[in-house]
């Protein structure tokens, strides 16, 4: 066999943008080149695609009917978004993450990233598989946890049959992972797979419909790769990233700006004071905003940590279980100053109400300024004073509410442990 391995054209391939149809056109030029090589039979040139490449190979075979065969190795078949959700789910189950974390998977995978990132996540290869008429070899390792190894093979068989294609051969290899390696990613590629692949290609067309159609190790796919619902507007990428960045910026930046401006204006008595928040609200508001930022930071650190554990397909109960409890503990602690603020605002409301009742009972009498039946709270005491004080209060309120709602959306405040 003569094999040509082209260099990937990165003008159509990046983390945010991938055009599989255009990539198929790029790779087909390599097919055309291979057909012109001395000693190569142009009528027997086929395409080998592995993993993500199996979204491209069927497009090539459909657009170029002269392609003699396709080999689809570790094929996801489903849309990239569905495959990602399936893989993440399997990886996290192996790490033993709490049940609450699983609820965040569809929300994370279903959202679109800002500026149209991951626009290829909904690419559908099934229409191309339905037009696949050439002999096809489908290969999976039975320990490939990132792919729907049973569902994918069934889908390829069903789609090819719509085009009247019965020349589909499915093989599973025991102990092989996604890259057909034995004993993990550092192991050697399965020799049985390499031999079978070579025998199938060199034996065409006689090997195209050889029995049995499905053979090898027994696959075990526990869950289906299913469609991922799109979250509502507040769970979309633009909203999540935009509100989070704005909230963190205000939580950190607003107090700093207020202190700089406040200390600066005190140096010139002729200039008006910038104002500030009420003393009984200032500290709990700052603590609440700090707690909300720390909760968000802890959540991000935790997700990055379990992602590394999951990708290594390992386990660490201290990080996975203990880390999640730590994130939730920080989140609950951040609610304490929030409760203090709410309680003191409620005292102000009660103070105003009691003052009105006092006035009604003593109509016509002298009324002491700021009288209140609530100890420690003056009825006329404002939440803030001056433009700077009200701006600081508004900024911190927005930051606290936004960050707490965001972390609640991702499961930090779910009931139960």
UniProtKB/TrEMBL annotation:
<feature type="domain" description="Peptidase S9 prolyl oligopeptidase catalytic">
    <location>
        <begin position="24"/>
        <end position="201"/>
    </location>
</feature>
<dbReference type="InterPro" id="IPR001375">
    <property type="entry name" value="Peptidase_S9_cat"/>
</dbReference>
<keyword id="KW-0472">Membrane</keyword>
<dbReference type="InterPro" id="IPR029058">
    <property type="entry name" value="AB_hydrolase_fold"/>
</dbReference>
<keyword id="KW-0812">Transmembrane</keyword>
<dbReference type="Pfam" id="PF00326">
    <property type="entry name" value="Peptidase_S9"/>
</dbReference>
<feature type="transmembrane region" description="Helical">
    <location>
        <begin position="239"/>
        <end position="264"/>
    </location>
</feature>
<feature type="transmembrane region" description="Helical">
    <location>
        <begin position="285"/>
        <end position="311"/>
    </location>
</feature>
<feature type="transmembrane region" description="Helical">
    <location>
        <begin position="387"/>
        <end position="412"/>
    </location>
</feature>
<protein>
    <submittedName>
        <fullName>Peptidase S9</fullName>
    </submittedName>
</protein>
<keyword id="KW-1133">Transmembrane helix</keyword>
<dbReference type="InterPro" id="IPR053145">
    <property type="entry name" value="AB_hydrolase_Est10"/>
</dbReference>
<feature type="transmembrane region" description="Helical">
    <location>
        <begin position="323"/>
        <end position="345"/>
    </location>
</feature>
